[in-house]
Amino acid sequence: MEKNSVLEMRGICKYFPGVRALEQVDFTLREGEIHALMGENGAGKSTLIKVLTGVYHKDGGEVYIKGIDKPAVIRSPQDAQNVGISTVYQEITLCPNLTVAENMYIGRTKGLLTNWKKINADAGKLLDDLGIPAIPGQQLGSCSIAVQQMIAIARAVDMNCKVLILDEPTSSLDEQEVAKLFKLMLDLKKKGVGIIFVTHFLEQVYEVCDRITVLRDGKLVGEYVIEDLPRVQLVSKMLGKDFDDMADIKSESDTENIDYSSTPVYQAKGLEGTTGIKPFDFSIHKGEVNGFTGLLGSGRSECVRAIFGADKVNGGEVLIDGKPVKINKPLDAMKNGISYLPEDRKRDGIVGDLSVRDNIILALQVMKGFFKPISRAQAEEFADEYIKLLNIKTASSETPIKSLSGGNQQKVILARWLLANPKYLILDEPTRGIDIGTKVEIQKLVLKLAGEGKSVTFISSEIDEMIRTCSRLVVLRDGKVVGELKGDELTQNKIMATIAGGES
Amino acid sequence: MSSNTVKKQTSLAGLAKSVVRKQIFIPIAALLILVLFNLIADPSFFQITLQPNSEGYNVLSGNIISIIDRASELVILAIGMTLVTSASGGQDISVGATIAIAGSVVLRVLCGSNTRPDTLQAPVIVAFIVCCLVSMLFGAFNGTLVAYFKIQPMVATLIMFTAGRSIAAWINNNELPVISDPKFAYYGNFIPGIPIPTPVFITAACLIVIALVLKFTNLRLYSQAVGINPHSSRLNGINPQMIKFITFVILGLCVAVAGFIKVSRLSTINYSVVAKDIEMDAILAVALGGNALGGGKFNMTASVIGAYVIQFLTTTLYKYDVDSAAISAYKAVVVIILVVLSAPIVREKMGEVKKKLFPAKTAKEAA
Fold first, then answer.
1. Strands A313-320, A266-273: parallel, antiparallel or unpaired by DSSP?
2. What are A5's strand-pairing partners?
3. How far apart are CA B317 and CA B311, in angstroms?
4. Does A358 contact B238 at a Cβ distance shorter than 8 Å?
5. What are phi and psi of B314, to 5 degrees?
6. A31-51 burial, b for 16+ CB within 10 Å, e for fewer?
7. Which site from A75, A351, B3, B243 is most exposed, i.e. has the minimal number of CB atoms within 10 Å?
8. A180-204, pLDDT tens digit by residue?
9. Cα of A426 to nearest chain B Cα, Å
10. How many whole angstroms separate alpha carbon A206 and alpha carbon A188?
11. Residue A243's pLDDT is what?
12. Rounded-to-integer distance, Cα B139 and Cα B248, Å
């Protein structure tokens, strides 16, 4: 172990059936440092944290903790706590109806009798030391989320933790609260605590962190001192694209056919969602494939959800073929010829226990109306047609959709929306978590649909997939549209620079 | 030719297997066990005779007739309870209490303020319609709590479960009116000249209506989709709250019909005991039908058969002079057995045991 490091993870491996979640990952945390752990979805950040906190059992590698000669054995969160590793999660895991002091000492008092007087005094002293604006006897639920998070941190600190893991602590805080939290983090840093900071907000990383470790696809990309890694470089490391790599794969679809002077199929003016995105303008033409891009949490999904009416919309104007319409709920969007394949297939897409057939006809059925059921024979016909068209692998159309593989489930949902015959099809991460073969099939399908005159919005975390399929990209950062790229601008370098923003 | 018979046998075995796997197998098997038990214990159980009743008409009587007759209210409730279970993933425990309200409304409309009127104060159809409207209103109340206030169904309906019988008493100023017009008793007993109890016809009508509704609307697809995945249903244009709300209103209508039959049977009701514990029987009927109480897919036929099984069991127990206070305990035992046997984990284990006991047979079956 290095002299000043408090935690060293060496060659950590973790396998799940069919997936290498972590492959030979090293991670070093030094005394008194704030260390950002970065990576896109599926990079292995949370797996690494869960291995460290004993939620998962690693399949290989060793963990060393300062002050322990042998590799540490962490087989449960309790073990992790005993060796001085504490975690504060995004969701508060304390009890809001207990007092602040009770929350700080719950589960840590010995024996039957508890000296509440002493506990309250101790809690008060600790809160003072850390500058947390809370009273020990106050109900936790009456504190703001930020203060609750700080109390969770105080509880961790009081348990003599050497390693403090903060998993997305800022995602539900406003700017002032974030500032307070950062002050506390810097105080702890001075006291020599090593902090692992998991977040997807780039600015915050550059505000407080000393070092960055980047993971991608379960592998270590590298550890960097913050001064040596400009933002653009960080984004390119996370996305796995070399910034200087000029080899660009341009879309083969000819964009000349699109008549940009015509009335857009869909146009939004100042559309404002309730999910933290700023008002935005957007339009799409007949036969066009465009994309929304940005890092995770940049608001790309929230934008398309607002377009579809999946989340409540606060304001703005929507024109379909030049005519103003109101889209307040998904059914309004569907009746106006918009289809939306959601990002979270399991939660928002499939209806697990229903058959493949019922899942395919669902959207069309709802559009037809409550009193006009599609006949059994007709439904069979639709199902068989699309099972064949999209090459869906299922025992029969009667099989419950939940017993299909992820890729085939996705194809069923795609079939559902193709059957609804939309003018404008929104696909949010249609290729996530499915095999390469199916990915290519879906990309080809998107281009084919565009060729037939449909408009498609295609969202993907993989930039080259977007470049291949889209003729225009809307770039988002922190809930705001920060750029629109088309034609020659559609290069990886330009896209990543726009995503990263800042002074790069 | 021999190959032909073999083929026939395997297809028969396959058929038997697929029948066992069907959801409807559970209630039918339970029904068969009860029938078999009674056949062995006392075949006269199944005797049906044509006897003059107290009014002097010839009517069919016998245990089977009494089961089909007495099960009417339960079967009608099971229809609504199945829908509520499917869409909301919970159960309405207030149906017994709201039956008391429905019955009380019928009495109030027919008797006015007089407790022993010589003539009906309003046409029966008016009483029925008012009873339906009031019951649907209470269904809507429950539905609103569940769908829009997102309260757990059992907790939400606990309110009417507690308050219902008091409201029923209040509607008639705590009096127990009795309807003297013999024509009103036709709906719960016999119509002169027809040897089959009237509730059987009413039940049949309800079953036909729900069958038509399930066939000609998307109620089944929508409530199943909402019960399985409300998020995804919403993104497919379904209004999950509305669907949950509607199922509670439909259950309210079922309560109205059941309450109407109950009043007609005795020409009066006792608010504190009428349809007591019927909510538990209705929930049991749904469970016995193999429907998941957590919502989602449902099989209406299985629920209806489940309701008849419960009445069959009750009548069988009465026949063997089981004390009426003890009947619930016997029912509970039978229910435990049925529910445990139908639990997926037990069925899985039984499959394993079967494989161990008859390895050759299962191998042959597989071949």
1. antiparallel
2. A30
3. 10
4. no
5. -60, -50
6. bebbbbbbbbebbbbbbbbbb
7. B3
8. 889 888 988 888 889 999 887 788 8
9. 13
10. 18
11. 53
12. 5
Distance CA A249, CA B184 (A): 83
* End position of a domain, from candidates A173, A198, A229: A229
- C-alpha gyration radius of chain A: 26
Nearest Cα residue to A460 out of A496, A427, A422: A427
- Flag if A348 and B296 touch (Cβ within 8 Å): no
CATH number at residue B71: 1.10.3470
The residues of chain B scoring below 70 in pLDDT are 1-21, 338-339, 342, 344, 358-367
**Three-state SS at A178:** helix
Contacts of A96 (CB under 8 A, 6+ apart): A139, A140, A141, A148
Do strands A472-477 and A480-486 pair parallel, antiparallel, or not at all (unpaired)? Answer: antiparallel
**Of the candidates A352, A354, A367, which has its C-beta nearest B237's C-beta?**
A367
User: Would you call B252 exposed, middle or buried from its count of C-beta atoms within 10 A (0-12, 13-18, 19+)?
Assistant: buried
User: Searching chain A, which residue's CA lies closest to the CA of residue B224?
Assistant: A354
Report the pLDDT value the prediction gives residue A256, as an integer from 0 to 100.
Answer: 56
Calpha distance B141→B136 (Å, rounded): 8
Return the CATH number at A24.
3.40.50.300
Phi (first) and psi of residue A210, to 5 degrees:
-100, -40
User: Chain B contacts of A348, Cβ < 8 Å?
Assistant: 231-232, 235
Q: In this predicted structure, what is the pLDDT of residue A235?
A: 81
Of residues A329, A334, A349, nearest to B232 (C-beta)? A349
A38: closest CA among A173, A211, A178, A155? A211
Do A388 and A270 reside in the same domain of the chain? no
Do residues B232 and A348 make contact, with C-beta atoms less than 8 angstroms apart? yes
Question: Would strands A60-65 and A323-325 be described as parallel, antiparallel, or unpaired?
Answer: unpaired
In whole angstroms, what is the distance from residue A5 CA to residue A8 CA?
7
Within 10 A of A5 (CB to CB), how many other CB atoms are there?
16
Residue B119's domain comprises 63-321
| Residue B6 main-chain phi, psi, to 5 deg | -60, -45
Answer yes or no: are the C-beta atoms of A192 and A181 closer than 8 Å: no
ipTM over 0.85: no
Instruction: Compute the 3-state secondary structure of chain B and give helix, strand, coil in percent, each to the nearest 5.
Output: 70, 0, 25
Residue A445 within any structural domain of the chain: no
- Do residue A169 and residue A50 come from a single domain? yes
pLDDT of residue B13: 61
Q: Are B281 and B310 in contact (CB under 8 A)?
A: yes
pTM of the model: 0.74
Nearest CA-CA partner of A33 in A12, A2, A72: A2
pLDDT of residue A18: 62
Contact A6, A194 (CB under 8 A): yes
In Å, how far are B44, B63, B71 from B66, measured between CA atoms? 14, 5, 8
Predicted local confidence at residue A83, as pLDDT? 87
Shortest alpha-carbon distance between residue A428 and chain B (Å): 13
CB–CB of A404/A345 below 8 Å? Answer: no
Place of tokens 């939004």: A268
Which stretches within A53-192 are classed as H helix? 77-82, 100-105, 116-130, 145-158, 175-190
Containing A267, the helix (H) or strand (E) segment is strand A266-273
Report, as ranges of residue numbers, the positions in chain A whose pLDDT lies below 50.
244-253, 503-504
| Helix spans in A351-398 (H) | 356-368, 376-389
Subunit contact A373:B237, Cβ cutoff 8 A: no
Q: Which helix (H) or strand (E) holds B251?
A: helix B240-266
Contact at CB, B228 and A353, closer than 8 angstroms: yes
Q: Containing domain of residue A289, as a range?
A: 247-337+423-435+450-504
**Dist. CA A68–CA A82, nearest whole Å:** 12
